[in-house]
Each structure stands twice: as C-alpha cells, then as structure tokens.
Amino acid sequence: MSFDLDSILANDRLAVARAISAVERGGEEARRALVALYPHTGRAHVVGVTGAPGSGKSTLVCRLAAWLRARGLSVGIVAVDPSSPFTGGALLGDRVRMQELSCDPGVFIRSMANRGSLGGLAETTVDAVAVLDAAGYQVILVETVGTGQAEVDVARAAHTIVVVVVPGMGDDIQAAKAGILEIADILVVNKADWENAERTIAEMNMTLQLGAPGAGWIPPVLPTVATQGTGVDEVAEAIGNHRQWLQESGGWEERQHRNARQRLLGAAQRRLYTLLVQRTDRERLEYLVQQVAERRIDPYAAADALLEMGGCPATGETEEPS
Amino acid sequence: MSFDLDSILANDRLAVARAISAVERGGEEARRALVALYPHTGRAHVVGVTGAPGSGKSTLVCRLAAWLRARGLSVGIVAVDPSSPFTGGALLGDRVRMQELSCDPGVFIRSMANRGSLGGLAETTVDAVAVLDAAGYQVILVETVGTGQAEVDVARAAHTIVVVVVPGMGDDIQAAKAGILEIADILVVNKADWENAERTIAEMNMTLQLGAPGAGWIPPVLPTVATQGTGVDEVAEAIGNHRQWLQESGGWEERQHRNARQRLLGAAQRRLYTLLVQRTDRERLEYLVQQVAERRIDPYAAADALLEMGGCPATGETEEPS
Predict the structure, then answer these.
(1) Looking at residue A303, what DSSP letter applies?
(2) How many whole angstroms separate alpha carbon A69 and alpha carbon B19?
(3) How far apart are CA A195 and CA A207, in angstroms?
(4) If residue A81 lies in a helix (H) or strand (E), which one and from where to where?
(5) What is the distance between the alpha carbons of residues A45 and A75, in angstroms, rounded to a whole number?
(6) Cβ-count burial of A258 within 10 angstroms (0-12 exposed, 13-18 middle, 19+ buried)?
(7) Residue B46: how many other CB atoms lie within 10 Å
C-alpha cells in the first residue's frame, strides 16, 4: 500500500505523485486515498485555464505560475491537454521555462493521460486537484483544451475559469464556441499583437456584456502576448479579484456547493454502475448484448431487463411510462 | 408528439431533422423515438473521421461525401466539432462545396451542439447516427475533433475510423496522440504537399506497424491534399476495403456487438441515475451536498448514504471493503 496520508499532507513530492497515480488508476486504492484526503481539501483556489490547441494557454499557465511564485504562493499545475507542453510537446522556450518551474519545490506539475472510460478524465482530474489541494498548494492551475465535453466539465469544477482565445480564426468559430465563452470568468485574447486583435477584443466585450447576468461579476476581456509576458500581470490580478469577489459575494460557497453536488452524484452514479456490473450474471448480460446487436430488442428495454436481474429494483412505483 | 416513424423510414427530411432534435433534447420523447427506430438500424456503414482542428478533416469529409454520391450512395454527415465548417465556421471554398452537398436530397448534414451533461455528447451523437441509419442513409460520416475523451468514444462507435493528421506539428504532439493513432483503421496525412510530409508518413507507417495486431487489418497511411481532392479516391477506396474486410473477417459483427454492449450498459447507467434522482428526497440530498461541501463527509460515504435512502439497496452482500 503506497498511500501515506501524513506524507501527502506534508507535501512530500514522491507521496503526492504516488497518490495522483493511484487516483489515475482508480478503484479501491484511489477511493481509500480520497476518503482520507477529503477532509483536508477545500482550501486551494482552483483556476481552470481552457482554450484551443495553439491558443498559447500553456505559455500563459507557465507565466501565471511564475507570477504567483514571485509572490510566495505555492502552485499546482494539472494539464489535461494531450498536446500541452506539460505533457511533452513543447516549444523550446516553453520547455526551458517549465524546467525552471519544475525545479522549484513550490511548484508541482502533473499531466493527466487523456484516456480511460467516458467521464473518467473529468473525474480523475478533479481527484488529482484534490490531492494537490490536500498537499497544501495554494493555487491550482488546471489546463484543458476547450473542445471536448469532458474538458468543459473539468473547467466547471474550478472556482475561476480563464478562457483563452486568439484573434481572428474566423468569427464563426468564436461564435460556435459560445458554450465556452458562457463559462468564462476571465477572457484572455492572447497573441494580441496580431493585426486583427482589436476587433476580436471588441467582439468579445460585446458577447460577454450581452451574457452578463445583471449585477454580478462582469468577465473582463484582457489582451496578452504570453510569449513576451505582456498582459500577464493583469490576468493574474483579475484572477485574484475574482477570488475576492467570490468570497465577498457568497459565490465561493456556491461553487464549493456545486462541486460537492457534482462529486456526490458522480460517485453515486459510478457506485450504482459498479454494483450493477458486479450483480449481473455474465451469461445473461452476453445474451442481452447479442439480442441488442441483432436488433431483436432495443437497448432501453434491455437495460430495464438488466436492472431487474441485477438485484436493483429499477422498475418500481416511480417508473416513467414507456 | 412530433415523432413519426413512417416518415423517418421514408427519409422525409423534416421528420428526420425533428427526430434528431428530439434525440438532442433527450428524455422520454427521445427514448420513445429510439425504441421505435432501433429495429430499423444496423444497416449503415458508420465511418468516424477524427483529427485536430485545422487538420482539414471537414474538407476531407466533404470530398468523401461527393465521392460516395457520385457512386450513388446516400450519405449522412454528423459533425461534432464545434469549429467544424458544418457547424458554421467555414472557409469560403468549403462553404460552396457544402452548399452543393446540402442541396442534394441524397445527403443529410447535421451538426451536434457540443453541450449537455457528461457523456451526453457521445450518447446523442450515436443516437443521431441511429436516426440517419433508420432513414436509410447508406454511409454515415461522423466528424469529431480528436482531443476529448467523448470524441474518442464517438469514434469508437464507428465501424471504420479514419484519423487525420498533418505533417510536422512536432513529433511530440504526434506521440502524445498515440491514443488516437491506436484506434485508427485508416490514417490520413493531409496537407501532404507540405515540405516535411514524407517524414511524417514514414513515422506513421512505423508507429502503426509496431501496433498492428498480427494477421489482422494493417491500417494504411494515405497522403492527401483534401483542398485539391488529391488522394481522396484512395481514402474512399480504403474505407470500402475496410468494410469488406470487416464483413469477411467477422469484424463487422464484432463491432456491432461492442456497440450494442456500450449502448446497453450506457442506457442502464443512465436509467439507474434517473431512478436514483427520482427516488431521492430533495431535502436529504441538499443536506448531504452541504455536508460534502463543508468536508464533514467525503463524497463516497455520502453517495452510499444516498443509495441507501434512494430505495436502491446499494450496500448489499457484494459490498467492497471500505
């Protein structure tokens, strides 16, 4: 058993790395680790940084980490983008900066493998954040590529969501990404030295003001040139302001509550599924799968049959009409 | 009730569009539609086309659709990439080609909104494919951006998976995408007129040969310049060859079986979850969420408490040690 609570709480790097690996593998060991760690979580400021591949979000994360370190804050970085420099694919400049960061005991960098079952990625990322939170990292930057649903869900689990876009790329694309813009607390227009940056900034301001819910937080639109560090101060300050606003407005508790609900219902769902699979007779399952494959029965009727057998009385008095 | 089985089976475009919308909304109406349609599915050749934004996969899909139409096959297109031209963001040339396609009654194009709950995207996409299958489309091209887990799952639900990469982009990135390469039945190196294309093709051939499972199908590596139509014939023929191989080797039934299992277990999981939420006392749920948010109880213990109450005896004799 490689799990050692005291070492994790003392931020022993090897213990932290092992705990995250356990979390990635999942199963009973992960569950035991998370049950033990859970009471020690809830202190870190979790910041999601999301954007398409090539938007420069990794460089921004790198710069933000350096900014926070310069102010004495410890920083965890969890990268979920398979093309992220933190995962291996890096421009040389990034790599040098990242090596500086990774030699700093106040920084812990971890990239998550983009694999596993549906929903598994979002779950294990949130769990990896919990490990870093328990280990005492004060700000945890979670880098995701904003194209997949799982990644949007990861971003939603953060207190503060930074969405990174680049100028141009077609207004159409930006519009199609309204789903991502909707969840932004801070919008960064990176590569703001490109020629059509002004227009993108104006458009983003308009989009976000249209969507701004009354007297709440209005997401600022901030230009950056992350490779040169331009505008990074403003982004870091906006992140701090957002945290303060969350704490003063009650939004912090609201987001903790939302995350708690997501974790609870997610755990319940996975538990139910595990129990279902455990209690199902293998032969009977194979028979049903074959019937579905041959179109003799639809998947929904087969699912009901499975639940009936599984020892879990799914078709009770609250059954919907079918 | 807007659902009309006979009109869908007769490929009435309005009825098909409405059924897909119902599927996107989910709930009881979607379920009723899919139960009715299910016996009429299983005939279409479902081809997943996946690749990063900017890899040119939309243009390739467009060209493949035209190739198939020229041979008298009806074609369904389901686009899951929010930045896809099919979703609105298009280069002018693409848009013209796409308008030609969309005026053709033998082509049905639908883009899926990249939203909804975790796993919802993969589910509704597979369901939209089922609608087009029942409506009689012979080949269904499913375009996904290959970065998110949900998209990989969508691709896995296809009979034939085409992965599109571009030359260069850093070997690191390509390596990180091994997860995507693993699932390729056909690998397309698009933009093969770029200078470093030869090397990428050689590398891809090596990677895929290493991973090739013995005497089975060896994924061909095919260069294309989709914007000019170069190499599209070869890709279309490889897709046809793969179908034939599947049918001769028993792989077709195997994939139908795998999809049936995924659909059955997925339906069972969602059913369980719905029942759990229905049977749970709201106040009690809120209480538990609050306890989790305050770190008084961990999500796993809370989930067990929820299942206990929900009328579903989750903690039976097969309970794991905790």
Answers:
(1) H
(2) 54
(3) 20
(4) none
(5) 10
(6) middle
(7) 23
d(CA A228, CA A17): 31
Best mutation target, A275, A278, A296, A322, to test chain B (most B CBs within 10 A): A275
| C-alpha count within 13 angstroms, C-beta hemisphere, residue A123 | 28
Residue B120 · residue B54 · CB < 8 Å: no
Instruction: Tell me the CB-side half-sphere exposure of residue A103, using CA atoms within 13 A.
Output: 6
**Residue range B102-155, pLDDT digits in tens:** 668 889 988 876 544 434 667 788 889 999 999 999 999 998 876 555 566 676
Residue A137, number of CB atoms within 10 A of its CB: 25
B150 touches chain A (CB under 8 A): yes
Q: For residues A208 and A187, give the distance between their C-alpha atoms in angstroms, rounded to a whole number.
A: 9
User: What is the separation of C-alpha A315 from the centre of its chain, rounded to a whole number of angstroms?
Assistant: 35
| H/E element, A109 | strand A107-111
Query: A304 to chain B, minimum CA–CA distance in Å?
Result: 7
Residue A190 CA to residue A168 CA, distance in Å, equals: 11
Confidence band of A320 (pLDDT split at 50, 70, 90): very low
Closest CA to A157 of A266, A19, A256, A40: A256
Give the 3-state DSSP-derived string for chain B, with helices as H, strands as E and coil as C: CCCCHHHHHCCCHHHHHHHHHHHHHCHHHHHHHHHHHHHHCCCCEEEEEEECCCCCHHHHHHHHHHHHHHCCCCEEEEECCCCCHHHCCCCHHHHHHHHHHHCCCCEEEEECCCCCCCCHHHHHHHHHHHHHHHCCCCEEEEEEECCCHHHHHHHHCCCEEEEEECCCCCHHHHHHCHHHHCCCCEEEECCCCCCCHHHHHHHHHHHHHHHCCCCCCCCCEEECEHHHCECHHHHHHHHHHHHHHHHHHCHHHHHHHHHHHHHHHHHHHHHHHHHHHHHCCHHHHHHHHHHHHCCCCCHHHHHHHHHHHCCCCCCCCCCCCC
Phi, psi of B305 (to 5 degrees): -60, -40
Q: In chain B, which among 274-293 make CB contacts under 8 A with chain A?
A: 274-279, 288-290, 292-293
Contact A302 B177 (CB under 8 A): no
Which pLDDT does position B120 carry in this prediction? Answer: 63
Q: What is the per-residue DSSP string for A218-259?
A: PPPEEE-BGGGTBTHHHHHHHHHHHHHHHHHHTHHHHHHHHH
Determine contact, residues B160/B183, Cβ cutoff 8 Å.
Answer: no
Interchain CB distance below 8 Å, A263 and B114: no
Provide ipTM, 2 decimals.
Answer: 0.77
| 3 state SS of A104 | coil
User: Tokens 């219902």 belong to which residue?
Assistant: A265
Q: Indicate the SS3 state at residue A10.
A: coil
CA distance B129 to B140: 7
Distance CA A90, CA A95 (A): 6
Q: What is the pTM assigned to this prediction?
A: 0.71
